[in-house]
Amino acid sequence: MSRFSFVRVLALACVVVFALGACSSSSSSKAGGGSSGGGGGPSSGGANACPVAALAKAKGPVTITFWHGLNRANEESLQRLVTKFNALQTKVKVDLVNQTGYEEILRKWVGGLGTGDLPELAQMEDTATQQMIDTQSIVPISDCIKADKYDSSDLVDRVVERYTVDGKLYPMPFNVSNPVLFYDKNAFRAASLDPEKPPTTLAEVKAYSAKLKNVGYQTGFGLKLNPWYLEQWASKANTLYVDNENGRKSRATKVQFDGAAGQATFAWMKDMVDSGLARTNPDGGPNGFDNLLGIRSKVQAMTIDSSASLGTISQVFAGGESGGVELGVGAMPGPSGSGGVLVGGGALYMSKKSAPEKIAATWEFVKFLVQADTQATFAAETGYVPIRKSSVKDPVLVAQWAKEPGYKVAYDQLLNGKDDVATAGPVIGDYAGVRDVVRDAETKMLSEGTDPKAALKAAAAAATKVIQDYNARVAP
User: Fold this and answer.
1) Residue 369 CB-density burial (10 A; 0-12 exposed, 13-18 middle, 19+ buried)
2) What was the pLDDT predicted at 315?
3) Confidence at residue 435, expressed as pLDDT on a 0 to 100 scale
4) Which pick of 93, 185, 223, 419 has the fewest CB atoms within 10 Å?
5) Residue 239 phi/psi, 5° resolution?
6) Burial of 462 (0-12, 13-18, 19+ CB in 10 A)
7) pLDDT value, residue 15
8) pLDDT value at residue 19
9) What number does CATH give the domain 179-341+425-474?
10) How far apart are CA 237 and CA 27, in angstroms?
């Protein structure tokens, strides 16, 4: 199913359930706590919003289904956590199902709105928030927190704010990541660069790349054409990606990424490629990891990718496949500005279509997944950022960060970033559609010679149309 077909499916699903209050239009009210919201709809909010007591009345174990999209080392870590939870108690049994990726999970969820074929819990990318709110098919985590009198004060504030809309925390953050710089320390030594001082700005990436090319590398930098990076660079520059306070005051209606910061990053990408200092690869498909593999094969010595890649990279290198590379990890280089990286990764959505005892059972499992020790173990094994403040004191994570300091980089750069509406991240309906437009613009600019400013301007116009088309279908 194409992205456009998928959005039509969501729109149709909203039409089907509109009379029941689903797919509501935006609200501009500001509820207490968290970010103000742009696309939140009404919530039941009453005593039955999250029936946490229903599990005690259940006869026998309650089985729940959990759809996830992790692979390799990350999936293996999650499997161990599920096995542990199932062994620790007898009231809940979790059936873990790999749906291969976030896009597939969201597509199947939307398809299941009409058939009733929904899991009790689903892991989805940070881009899914507005669409999941619009389906009105989820139990807001805030309702469970209130019903259970659950203490959420230990959760990392910036992570909670990413998924808070109209004062409600909709999914529970789980596997949090952000982009980091991967580089070969041995290559830096060969180029007379300090291996403990990776570049922190885009200008420095260019300068380092020139020196690396001079000592025999084909290029200095592997540039994955991932539209996520434009969002991250906008946040680091402390600029808004979409209007209406990043879609958090009211529903986003147009993009704002084509300002000075966006123009500078597009110009930098084109300059890097045109000067032979960077080679590109797509962000998906069989060549989606060429930027990382290029470091191992010594085609280039630097790239930007998700911190969530660390577990798998470590797994590969531990198998004797490092190719003589000493991997270094640094903060994501970016444009000048006072912002910070966005919260990336995934979060957990609870279906309100489930029976009360299943909702209660799901809540118990969710609480286990975000316990301080669980988050510490998961972060130590994968490179994800722990979402609990107290997790950083857990012996497992303390030991891993001491052994592999690169695993701590994403946590530090997230907490060191500014905490405001720009760094909370955009809330967009057809988020995937906006990314498709940005990706296409980058590809055309770098392969067809389009002027960066013109490419960005065209992308902004097309992305705005994507947003407005979605709003017209889902929130007329």
Assistant:
1) buried
2) 76
3) 97
4) 419
5) -120, 155
6) middle
7) 40
8) 31
9) 3.40.190.10
10) 28
For residue 381, CA distances in Å to 82, 100, 284, 311, 391 come to: 15, 20, 24, 6, 13
Q: Phi then psi for 439, rounded to 5 degrees?
A: -60, -45
Instruction: Name, in order, each residue with C-beta under 8 angstroms of 469's C-beta and a sequence gap of 6 or more.
Output: 7, 430
Query: What is the three-class DSSP state of 183?
Result: strand
Q: Which amino acid would we find at residue 339? A: G
Contacts of 274 (CB under 8 A, 6+ apart): none
Residue 102 structure tokens: 């976030």
Write down the pLDDT at residue 71. 92
Q: Which two tokens stand for residue 64?
A: 């729940």
- Spell out the domain ranges in the chain: 3-177+344-393, 179-341+425-474
Residues of the chain with pLDDT under 70: 1-47, 318-322
Are 195 and 188 in contact, with CB atoms under 8 Å apart?
A: yes
Q: Write the single-letter amino acid at 373.
A: D
Q: What angle do CA 40, 164, 352 make, to 5 degrees?
A: 60
Q: Tell me the average pLDDT of the chain.
A: 90
Burial of 317: CB neighbours in 10 Å, binned 0-12, 13-18, 19+: middle
Please state which CATH number belongs to domain 3-177+344-393: 3.40.190.10
Q: Which position has the token pair 């559609």?
A: 433
